[in-house]
Amino acid sequence: MEPETLDLARLQFALTAGGHFLFVALTLGLATVVAVIQTRAVFSGDPVHARMVRFWGQLYVINYAVGIVTGIVMEFQFGMAWSGLGHYAGNVFGASLAIETIVAFFVESTFLGLWIFGWNRFGQRLHLALLWVVTLTAYLSAYWILVTNGFLNHPVGYRETPEGLVIGDTWALLTNPSTLFAFFHIAGGALVTAAFFMAGVSAYHLFRRTSEYELFRRSLRIGVFVALPAVFFTAAVGGAQFPVLREYQPAKMAVFQSDPAEMARLQGDMAAKFGPGDYLPSEAWTRAGAIVMLSVFGLMFFIAVLGIVLGSIKWAVYHLRPWHVLLMAVVPLPFVAMTAGWVFREAGRQPWVIYGLLRTRDAGSALSTGQLRLSLTVFGALFVLLIAVNWWLLLRAAGRGPSGVALGTDDRSEDGSYDPPLPVHSY
Q: Any idea where the domains of the chain sit in the sequence?
């Protein structure tokens, strides 16, 4: 693949993967929080928690529905622009991608549909169990994606044949440290994303002195009290990855630490082993991704600590409007931090698409520069549109508050508005 064509292919994959990940982070976190709230609603019978389930559940469904479309595009990338990767190692990671597709597009989507449309048709506990299946399969789907990504970053469990790579040790592939660390890191980051989102939306309604003050008081407290342990857990798992990276991807760590002597030594070693070429990742992208990620996580930590303090003061929750403004303003921070983290993870393994085995330039399809420009334009426009539509729908539904929720209601009155569910089915 020509250098310009390769750059376009990499840019296209980066934009589509990054765009899809914005949906994944919020979906994973919201699913978990909504499942916990519904559990509380079922076993306590608290009507406020029941209404919280419907409100936050509707925002979760919106994000999931639009995000699933972006996930479909990701499946096309391997065959369209990266057929060389599929031919060489598809027998290793193809199974994990297939399982992820089955989990996400069949199991998770089916149970989510039952949860959405079966609100007034199932018993409370069965309906709750449906959401927990959705939540657990969402994490299972993320795990299978990371089995593939972990293999690309740290190939284990494979065996080389004349036709390419095949699975040699399934257990080693499934327990790859690169996969497990990334999974828990992302799981924690998803909770951070949901916590900041909940706190920001709740702060908006409390700032406006909404009549739903009790619902949003509780929601804001959930957001701020989840944020701090989630930030701490995510940062701890992220920090635990650095010793692993020093062993498996020393060039990435040398670039991150800006160690010229180590960089020169590693470049010489890899050139001697693999032949002439530049084997160091882009210093600009690798270091910038790490610095942004670490800086934003530090900022979120201080905001989360402040949230714990102020969230414990009832007057502050209701009346401290500068804090409400701050919580609204910092909603994007988790998305920035997680995107920067992915830049650090992926840019730092270049020039390898499979670290130490297959170079990125050898993994592309036989596409022309014009073809990739066209596909990049189409996919880029599509993702911009989907992201814009998703946030418009989310902000519109969030701004309307619980009175505009349609989730969990079946019957319509003559004016088209939704009636509340029958009391016998309510939480």
A: 3-249+281-403
